[in-house]
Design brief:
Layout: H1 2-44, H2 48-69, H3 75-93, H4 97-118, H5 120-123, H6 131-147, H7 152-157
Helix pairs in contact: 1-2, 1-4, 1-6, 2-3, 3-4
């Protein structure tokens, strides 16, 4: 009975983690997208110093989020976003509006791609599971298999 309670508790924890991941990623990508648009507005209003300062803050904030997200998301898309934010910073400092606009759009696009790729499981039944979701479900199945190893009908399906 203790094994059953332990496995149910682990299942609940895994589901809570997946929901937390979904919520955190969604709110973070929305926040960064809105902040990036604010940087563009600051640049359009010729407030270059404020735009550079806000971009520097975003780069540091993204590095903090990158450390958290890298525990459950592939590192490559996270690094691409960080690289785009750094490129935006350089373009702002050099007053290269064309390159800045391109990097801004690339960053927004990468944030949207990250959100849609990782959240495909929650959005539709298209069969596009994110890496973190597959890992979570494999971990759940492994724990359930370990827990219910003594029940032949259940272990046959695992």
């Amino acid at each position: 009975m203790k094994r059953l309670i332990a496995s149910i508790s682990l299942l609940v924890l895994a589901v809570v983690f997946c929901v937390w991941e979904h919520f955190t990623l969604k709110t973070t990508t929305e926040y960064f997208s809105s902040e990036i648009y604010q940087i563009k507005e600051l640049y359009n209003d010729n407030e270059i110093d404020a735009a550079i300062e806000k971009n520097n803050y975003l780069v540091e904030s993204w590095k903090d989020k990158h450390a958290i997200f890298s525990t459950f998301i592939d590192h490559e898309p996270l690094k691409e976003i960080e690289t785009s934010l750094e490129a935006m910073k350089v373009n702002l400092e050099n007053d290269e509006f064309g390159d800045f606009s391109v990097e801004l759009q690339k960053t927004i696009s990468r944030l949207e791609d990250l959100n849609s790729t990782e959240m495909a499981f929650f959005k539709s039944s298209s069969g596009n599971f994110s890496f973190s979701m597959i890992f979570s479900f494999l971990a759940i199945l492994h724990v359930l298999q370990w827990t219910f190893l003594n029940f032949p009908p259940f272990s046959v399906f695992l």
